[in-house]
C-alpha cells in the first residue's frame, strides 16, 4: 500500500467517525520551546491548554514533523527519520479512552478491502502506563488482546506531558511484531527493533504541577474535560505494508536513494557503510527540502543551523559515495516529485528552494575541499603518534578557517576512529568570543577577515542555544 493511500485511509476513517479534517500546519510555528513542529498535536496545543476554544470537538490531521534529536539514529535504526508525517486524531474534551482504542484498533486491523490496513491482530502488542488498569481492560474488551501482549511501562516511556504545568496523562503505544528475524522475543519492552512502534495514544486525563524533565513533577489530579491526542507514524506503517526493511526504503523516500545510486554509480545494498550514507541522504534530503519549503534558510542561528547541518551532511555523504558534482538540487527535484502531490508549496516554491540549496552547496564546497585536507593530515599525524584524540586546536582551526561545524569534525573523526578534544575546542571558542567582544568594544582594527570572524561569533554564540533548544525539544515527547 502506497503512502498516499495510507494517509487517505487514515483521513477517511476518522472523517467517517465525525472528525474535522485539518490540513498540516507549517513546520515552523511561533513556539519558543520548539525549533520545529515535532508532533501532530503541536498546532492544537492552545485547545488542549484551554487557551482557545476548539473550533471542533474532534479533529484529524496528517502533520509534517521534524525531530532533529533523532538525527544520529538516521540510517542506523530502521525506524527514525528526521522528517516524517504523523497522522493523528484528537478529541478536545469529547470522546475518551475507549473510543480512542477502538478507532485505532479498527483502522489497523480492518481488512484492506474494507478500508483498513489489514494488520494481523495476532502480531499486535501494546504498552500501557504502569497503573493504567483501565487501558488494560479496554484493550482486552475492545480489541480482544490477550494479557500476554499488553505490557506495563514506566513514566519515561508511557506518561506524557507538555513539559509545563497543564494537561498530562498516561499513554498507550501500539507495536507490530516483525518476527524473529528482527530480534529477540519478549515484546516491546524487550526489543524495539523487532516490535516496531507504530502508534501512540495519549490519554490526557490529569493535571501536572511544576517540575522538570519527563518524570520529575507531581500529578495533581483529574482534568474536568479529558482529551485524546494520538500520533501514528505514516512512514512506519508504510514500511510494514510495503514489506521493506526500513523507513528509508518506503515509496516516498526510496527515490532519493535511487538518484544517489545513479549519481554515484554505486549500488544500495552492496555494503553497510555505503548503505548508511544512502539512507542519510534520502532522509536529510526530505527534511532539508521540507524545512526550506517552510521558509527557513541555512545560517548559524538555531533553525538555520540545524538546516545547515542536514544539508552539509547530504553533501558530504554524497562525496563519500564518490559523487563530486553538486547534488542538493538534484535530490530536491526528486523530493519535490515524491512529496509535491501532498505539499504543493514544494512545487510552487521550487525555484526559491533550489536557489537556497544551490547557494549553500556552493559555499560549503569551497571550504570542504581544503578543510578535508587539513583534517586528513591532522588525523594521520595523531595516529602516527599513537594517539586517539584530535586536539582541540585542530577542531578550532577547521572551524575558524574552513567553516567546519564542530559536528562535522566530530563525525569525520569518528569515521577515522578518533575522538575530539571537545573541551579544548570549546575553550578556544570562548577565548575567541571574549577577544572579539573586547575588540568590538574598542576600535575595529586588526582583523583582516571580518566576515569569517563574524560568522564564527554568531555560530559560537548561538550553537549552545541551539543545543539547549534541541534538548528541550527532546523532552517534549
Ligand atoms: P520511538 O520510541 O520509536 O523513537 P517515539 O515514542 O519517540 O518513537 P512518539 O513521540 O510516540 O514516538 O510519536 C508518535 C509516533 O510517531 C510513533 O509511534 C512513531 O510511529 C512515529 N515516529 C516517532 N518518531 C519518529 C521518527 N523519528 N521517524 C519516523 N516516525 C516516527
Ligand atoms: Mg523517539
Ligand atoms: Mg517510543
Ligand atoms: Mg511513542
UniProtKB/TrEMBL annotation:
EC category: ligase
Example GO biological process: alanyl-tRNA aminoacylation
Catalytic activity, as annotated: tRNA(Ala) + L-alanine + ATP = L-alanyl-tRNA(Ala) + AMP + diphosphate
Cofactor: Zn(2+)
The EC number(s) this enzyme carries: 6.1.1.7
Annotated Gene Ontology cellular component terms: cytosol
Limits of the Alanyl-transfer RNA synthetases family profile domain: 1-477
KW Manganese (keyword) present: no
An example Gene Ontology molecular-function term: ATP binding
Keywords, sorted A to Z: Aminoacyl-tRNA synthetase, ATP-binding, Cytoplasm, Ligase, Metal-binding, Nucleotide-binding, Protein biosynthesis, RNA-binding, tRNA-binding, Zinc
Cofactor binding remark: Binds 1 zinc ion per subunit.
UniProt-annotated location(s): Cytoplasm
Keyword Metal-binding: yes
Primary site of residence: cytoplasm
Entry note about domains: Consists of three domains; the N-terminal catalytic domain, the editing domain and the C-terminal C-Ala domain. The editing domain removes incorrectly charged amino acids, while the C-Ala domain, along with tRNA(Ala), serves as a bridge to cooperatively bring together the editing and aminoacylation centers thus stimulating deacylation of misacylated tRNAs.
Stated role: Catalyzes the attachment of alanine to tRNA(Ala) in a two-step reaction: alanine is first activated by ATP to form Ala-AMP and then transferred to the acceptor end of tRNA(Ala). Also edits incorrectly charged Ser-tRNA(Ala) and Gly-tRNA(Ala) via its editing domain.
Family of the protein in this entry: Belongs to the class-II aminoacyl-tRNA synthetase family.
Name of the protein in question: Alanine--tRNA ligase
Amino acid at each position: 500500500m502506497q503512502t498516499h493511500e495510507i494517509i487517505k485511509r487514515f483521513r477517511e476513517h476518522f472523517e467517517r467517525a465525525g472528525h474535522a479534517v485539518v490540513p498540516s500546519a507549517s513546520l515552523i510555528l511561533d513556539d519558543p520551546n520548539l525549533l520545529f513542529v515535532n508532533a501532530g498535536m503541536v498546532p492544537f496545543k492552545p485547545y488542549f491548554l484551554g487557551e482557545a476554544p476548539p473550533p471542533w470537538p474532534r479533529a484529524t490531521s496528517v502533520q509534517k514533523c521534524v525531530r532533529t534529536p533523532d538525527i544520529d539514529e538516521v540510517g542506523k535504526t530502521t525506524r527514525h527519520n528526521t522528517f516524517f508525517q504523523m497522522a493523528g486524531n484528537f478529541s478536545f474534551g469529547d470522546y475518551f479512552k475507549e473510543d480512542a482504542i477502538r478507532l485505532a484498533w479498527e483502522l489497523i486491523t480492518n481488512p484492506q478491502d474494507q478500508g483498513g490496513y489489514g494488520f494481523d491482530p495476532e502480531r499486535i502488542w501494546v504498552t500501557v502506563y504502569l497503573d493504567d488498569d483501565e487501558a488494560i481492560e479496554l484493550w482486552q474488551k475492545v480489541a480482544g488482546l490477550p494479557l500476554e501482549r499488553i505490557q506495563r511501562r514506566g513514566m519515561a516511556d508511557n506518561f506524557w506531558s507538555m513539559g509545563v504545568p497543564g494537561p498530562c496523562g498516561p499513554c498507550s503505544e501500539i507495536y507490530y511484531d516483525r518476527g524473529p528475524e528482527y530480534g529477540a522475543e519478549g515484546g516491546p519492552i524487550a526489543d524495539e527493533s523487532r516490535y516496531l512502534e507504530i502508534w501512540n495514544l495519549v490519554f490526557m486525563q490529569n493535571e501536572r504541577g511544576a517540575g522538570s524533565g519527563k518524570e520529575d513533577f507531581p500529578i495533581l489530579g483529574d482534568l474536568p474535560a479529558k482529551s485524546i491526542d494520538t500520533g501514528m507514524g505514516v512512514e512506519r506503517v508504510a514500511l510494514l505494508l510495503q514489506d521493506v526493511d526500513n523507513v528509508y526504503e518506503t515509496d516516498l523516500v526510496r527515490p532519493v536513494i535511487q538518484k544517489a545510486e545513479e549519481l554515484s554509480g554505486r549500488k544500495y545494498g552492496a555494503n553497510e557503510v555505503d548503505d548508511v550514507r544512502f539512507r542519510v541522504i534520502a532522509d536529510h534530503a526530505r527534511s532539508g527540502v521540507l524545512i526550506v519549503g517552510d521558509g527557513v534558510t541555512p545560517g548559524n542561528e538555531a533553525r538555520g543551523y540545524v538546516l545547515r547541518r542536514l544539508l552539509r551532511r547530504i553533501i558530504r555523504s554524497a562525496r563519500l559515495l564518490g559523487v563530486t558534482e553538486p547534488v542538493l538540487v538534484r535530490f530536491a527535484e526528486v523530493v519535490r516529485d515524491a512529496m509535491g502531490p501532498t505539499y504543493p508549496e514544494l512545487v510552487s516554491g521550487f525555484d526559491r528552494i533550489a536557489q537556497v540549496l544551490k547557494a549553500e552547496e556552493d559555499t560549503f564546497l569551497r571550504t570542504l575541499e581544503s578543510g578535508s585536507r587539513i583534517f586528513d593530515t591532522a588525523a594521520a599525524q595523531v595516529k602516527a603518534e599513537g594517539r586517539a584524540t584530535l586536539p582541540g586546536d585542530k577542531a578550532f582551526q577547521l572551524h575558524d578557517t574552513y567553516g567546519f561545524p564542530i559536528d562535522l569534525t566530530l563525525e569525520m573523526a569518528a569515521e577515522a576512529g578518533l575522538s575530539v578534544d571537545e573541551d579544548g575546542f570549546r575553550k578556544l571558542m570562548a577565548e575567541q568570543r571574549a577577544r572579539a567582544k573586547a575588540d568590538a568594544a574598542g576600535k575595529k582594527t586588526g582583523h583582516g577577515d571580518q566576515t569569517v570572524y563574524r560568522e564564527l561569533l554568531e555560530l559560537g554564540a548561538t550553537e549552545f542555544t541551539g543545543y539547549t533548544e534541541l534538548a528541550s525539544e527532546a523532552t517534549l515527547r
